[in-house]
Amino acid sequence: MGYFDEQHHTLLAEPVGPGDHVRGPVTSDVTLVEYGDFACPFCRAAYADVKALLARMPEVLFVFRANPRSHLFRDAEPAAEAAELAAAQGRFWEMHDRLFESEGVSRAELVTAARAVGLDVAAFERDLDAGAVRAAVRAQEVSGWHSHVLSRPSRPLAGGGGRLRGDDRAVVGAEAQDPPHGRGGEADAVTDAEGPPLPVLGVARR
Fold first, then answer.
1. For the whole model, what pTM was predicted?
2. Which of 148, 156, 157, 170 lies at a 20 to 30 A Cα distance from 198?
3. pLDDT tens-digit series, residues 135-152
């Protein structure tokens, strides 16, 4: 959830850059940035919606940033770190999908996922225990705070490359069951041609 008033615009504070985890064409005119939590039931429920949306709209650039809410879900931080450790071994998206599709994200399930996606499991467990990527996960979470991300899953959508220009707005999602929002022509809901509007999605036009 973000702020929806004239005094507190919800903007993508940290532009998409080379350190981000991206899927899709980097030259896209629309970038969907999700701040998500692998342990959050709303994020897990919304995963299928995002996957279906990207299948229908392959021209959209999708970016995932960690937003673990450890005060709510004890496995949130280790799961976010697990995905980041997978990225270090070139398997971020395989781990991203596996975690959202798994029954849970306990330590045992993280190790099972690491093995399933082909990671060096010994290195994975060593680095997970050492907190080797904790700072990287924290930086993603902080960028969400700066973008006024208040709950999960939140998904700003921006013009090409994730850079919002001038008085462009980003629409940030509330909880997954909430309806989509729009702001006076500056952002419109993304709709599913085969059904009702998808939850919590919008487009900030260039």
1. 0.75
2. 148
3. 999 999 999 888 877 654
